[in-house]
From TrEMBL:
Domain Cytochrome c: start-end pairs: 18-96
Keywords: Electron transport, Heme, Iron, Metal-binding, Signal, Transport
Signal peptide: 1-19
InterPro entries cross-referenced by the UniProt entry: Cyt_c-like_dom (IPR009056), Cyt_c-like_dom_sf (IPR036909), Cyt_CIE (IPR002323)
Record SUPFAM superfamilies: Cytochrome c
Name the UniProt record assigns to this protein: Cytochrome c5 family protein
């Protein structure tokens, strides 16, 4: 019984570690300081016109820009614990 409980606990931890983070929480923690309008070159959350040309580049390119840094954006966009899936979710959320 104890082995089964330990296995269930371990699998639960593994699943939680791979779960995507909440895009709004990531934005508020790491992205908002630039994407709320304080940095003129950073597309503002919800500004459809500003996001159109960027979305046309494709999600892979946008995630690469976040991961490696691009123009004024620092590498990893200040979210050191974000995965590529987290970046995709935040980009999609910001571009709505």
């Amino acid at each position: 019984m104890n082995k089964l409980a330990l296995l269930a606990f371990t699998l639960g931890l593994a699943a939680a570690a791979n779960a995507a983070q909440d895009p709004e929480a990531v934005f508020n923690r790491s992205c908002g300081m630039c994407h709320n309008g304080q940095l003129p070159t950073a597309p503002k959350k919800g500004d459809a016109a500003a996001w159109e040309a960027r979305k046309a580049q494709g999600m892979e390119t946008l995630v690469k820009h976040v991961t490696e840094g691009f123009n004024a954006m620092p590498p990893r966009g200040l979210c050191m614990d974000c995965s590529a899936e987290d970046y995709q979710a935040v980009i999609t959320w910001m571009a709505k």
